[in-house]
Fold each of these.
Amino acid sequence: MNRQLLDIFSRRVTRCAKRVSFGLYLGSAAIPAFAHHSFTQFDGNKSYLLEGTITSFEWTNPHGWIWIAVPDGKGGIDVWGAETKAPSGLVRDGWTKRSFNPGDKVTLYIHPMRGATKTGEFVKAVLADGRVLEPVGGTPNGPVRDPQPPPGPTP
Amino acid sequence: MVRVGSLRHETAVGVQSRRSRAEVIATRGACEDTVRVWAISPLRSAGVLVGALMLSALAYAGDSSGVKFAKPVPVAPGAGTAVPGKASGPQGDSWTSIAGLPDFTTGIWLGTMAGAPPSGLVGTEPPPASDGRNCTPNSMPGIMGGPLGIEFLFTPGRVTIATEADRAIRRIYLQPKHSDDPDYTFMGESVGHWEGATLVVDTIAIKSAHETAPTRVLERIHLKAPDTLQIDQTVFFGTKSVDRTSLYQRRRSERIMEYYCEENPRDTFDAAGNATVDTTQK
C-alpha cells in the first residue's frame, strides 16, 4: 500500500471511528422509555375552553377520548375531541367509564393540537353540578393557561 | 452447527456479527467501505475468501444468479454466561421454597423510572421512530417504566412479571446461566437467582422495534419497605453502561387493566414524527 492509499485509509478509519463513537454515545444516552407517543403535538401555551354537550366518551387504549359538540356561534356545531390518559391511568384518578355520558353538559379545557384538527390534550373538566375532574399529577403540557373559546368555524 | 458458526466469523458479514448493533448502525454508509477494507487485511483475507466461498456453497448453489441472502443473526452477547453474583437463601424452586421469599406478589406496583418525570411521559419525547409509537411494541427496559403498573407472579423455578403496558410478560427463569443461542425478543432472555431477599435478573438478547436495544440489563430487585419496591438497573450498550434506580409503590387492592394499543389508535405519526389524528366518530 503506497503512502497516498495509506492516507486515504487513515482518514476513512478516523471518520469511521468518530461515527462509531457517536453511535455508542447515542446508544448509551437513549435508554428506551415506555411511551405511546410524545405530547409535543399539543400546544401547551394555548388553552381552549369548550362549553357543550358530550357526544361520546371512548374508554379505550392507548388513550381515552372525550367528544363534545360545541356551538360555533353561527348556528352550527363543531365536534371537538379531548385525548386523555389510558383507562388504567384514569381509573387510578377515580374515573370510570361513566364519568362522562352522552348528553352531559360540561366545560372542557384542552391544549389544542397543532394544526387544524379539532382535537387537543385533556386538561380539566367542569361538570354541570360543579364537580371538577383533573388528572392526578397534572398533564404532560401543564395546567390551563388563559383559556379562550376556540377559533371560529372553519371557512 | 459448530461448523456453520465458525464460518460465520470468517466471512466479511461475520465481521459485523461480532460487533454491537450500535457499531453496525454507526458504520453504515461510507463506513461500510472502511469496514470492508479493514476486513480484507493480509491476516484475514485468506479466511474471508475461503469462508465466503464455503458459506456460499452451503447456503445456495444459485448465488451467482444475483439472489440476495440475509445476514446471519449474530449470537447475542452474553449467551451462555452465568448470572453475576452468588445465589443464597430460598431459590423459589418449589412451593415450599417460595413461601420463604419476600412478598412481591400481593397487589400491583406503580412505578417511575429515575431520570424520567413521574408520569413517565413528560419531557421524554420519543424520537420520530420510537418504540410504542404507532402501537409498535415496547421492549426491555422501557416496558418496566411508568406510568402503568406491573405485577409479580411466583411459581416454582420462575418469576413472572406481567406489565400493564402492552400486556407484556417477562419470564425470569431461576437458573444459573443463559442459553447458548437465545432468540432476540422484545423482553429478552431473563435468567436469575435470589441473593437472600434480593432477586437478581440478567437479561440479554433484547430486540427493539425502532431504537438501539441494550445488549444487557442487570436488575437487582428488593423491598425497600413493605409497600415500596426498588429496582436497581444497569443498562449496557456494549461496554458502556448506565445505572438507574426506580421505586414502585404497592397498590394492594388494585388490578392490572387490559391494554390493547390496537383498540383505538387515533394518533398516528409519519417518519418525521408529525402527528395526525383520526377524528372519525364511531
Amino acid sequence: MSRTAFCLVALVLLTGATVWIRPAASQDAASRLLGGVTVEQVARHAMIAPQIVDYEGTKVLSVLRGQAMETVTVSEAHKRPNRMRLEFLSPEGVAGRLVVDDGIQTWHYEPRLHVVIQGPSLRGPLEGPFERLLERYAISLLSLEDVIGRPTAVLSLIPRQGRGERRLWIDRMTGVALRTEERDPDEGLVATTYFTRISYGLNFPAALFLPRIPAGARVLVPVELSGSLVTVTQLARSVGFPLSVPATLPGGFALMGGEPVHGGPLRAVYLHYSDGARRLGVFIAPAARLGPPGRGVAVPALGAQARAMGWGATRMLQWEARGMRLTLIGPLPLADLVQIAQSFPPR
Amino acid sequence: MSAHRIERQLSAYLDGELTPEEAAGVRAHLDSCEPCRAELASLRATKSLLGRLPQPALPAGFAAGLWSRIERPAPRRWLWWPRPAMALAAAALAVVLVAVPLVRGHLERLRAAEVGPDLFLRMYAPAAAEDPFTDRAFITLVSTDAGLRLIGEEARGSR
C-alpha cells in the first residue's frame, strides 16, 4: 500500500471513529448528568406520563398568530389515562370556555353563546412505537433546569430529515412536560407552553370529567367523523373522484390512514401522515365544490389562490391544482409545506 | 224561359225585387201559363196571411242585455297572448331555471370555502392530539375556535 493510500484509509477510519465516538461520549455525559438515566429513557418516560400521572395546574400558552404572540391562560386537569378538563381563564375572548373530555367525546361549553359543541375526544398521546420516534428524531439533552421549583431535563427533538425543533422541559420525577417550545427555522420561536403551578397525585372525582350541560344550552355537533378507511383506492371509490398523493414527504412521513369528509355540500378526503411525532393532514376536494380560501396570507409560489394560515407551529396551506382544492395541515415550516404541495403529481 | 225558373222567381216578383227585364219576362210567361198564375195567386195569399199576423213583443231589458253582451270584452285565453310576451315569459323562466342552481351552487361553494379550513382543523385535531408531546390544551384551543366558526360564530379572528 502506498503512503497516500495508507493516509487516506487512516483519515477515513479516524473520521468514522470521531463521528461514532462523539455521540457516544455525548450520551455518556448526558447519562452522567441524569444520574445514570439515558436521554431516551427520559423521553420514553415523558411519552407514557399521561397514562400514569394525574395532575392539575395553571398553564400559559403563547402562540404566534399573524405577526403577534397571543397568550392564553388555562386551568388544566388531567386524569389518567385520557380524561381532561380545561377551563380557560384569559384573555377575555376565551374566558369561561370549558372543555370536558372523557376520552370518548369532547364537550365544549361557550358561555357567551350558551352553546355546547360536541366533538371527538382529543384524548392525547398514545404510547406508540418509541423506536420509530428515535429513528426519525435526534433527541438530546440540552441542560438540567428547575421549572416552578421542580427539577427538569431539557430535551431537544430535531427531525433527522426535516427542519424545526421542539424543546421539552420534562419533570424528572413524573415525566410531565412542564414547559415546551416550538421553534421554526424561518420564524424562530412560534409557540410556548408552561405551567405556572402544578399539583400531582390528586384524587379527582370522576364527575369532574363528565359533561354537565347547562340548563337551556343548545347542543351542537358540527362534525360527524366517519370510520377510517385504510387504502387510497377505497377512499377514491367512496367519494367518486380521483385522488393524488404527494410524491415526496420530508422527515420520513408515512401514510397512517384516511377517511371521507362530509360537511354540507363539501365532499373531501382526509389522508393523514405521521413521522412518529408530528401529524400531517392532507385534504383533497373538487374545486367545483370548495371555493377559493378567503383567509390567510398569499403564497404566490402555488398560484394566485394559494393561502397559508398558522397557529403557532401548526400551519395550513390551501391551493388549487388541476381542478382540485388541496389543503395541508401540520406542524411543519411553511417552506416544507410548499415543497410537499409542489410534489403532487399531475393527474 | 222555363216554368221551373219562373217558379223560383215568383216570390221575388211579388216582393218587387226583380229587374225590369226579369219582371217583363215573368209577366209574359204568366199570360200564357195557367199553373204559374195559380202558383202566384197561392203565394200572394200566403204573404197576405203572414202580413196580418201580430208582432210578438220583446221581453223587457232584451235590448239592454244584448248591447251589454256586445260591448263586454271577451274573456282572454292565455293562447291569445301576444306572441312577444309569451316568448319573453318563456325566456325569463328558462333563465330562472338555469340561474337558480348556478347561484345556489356558487353560494354553497363559497360557504364551503368559508368553513372548509375549520372543518379540516376539527378533523385534524384528534389525530394530532395522539402524537407524543403534543400539547392537548393548545390543540383543544385551536379545535374549539374552529368549532365556533363552523356553527357560524366568530371565534377570535384568525391569521
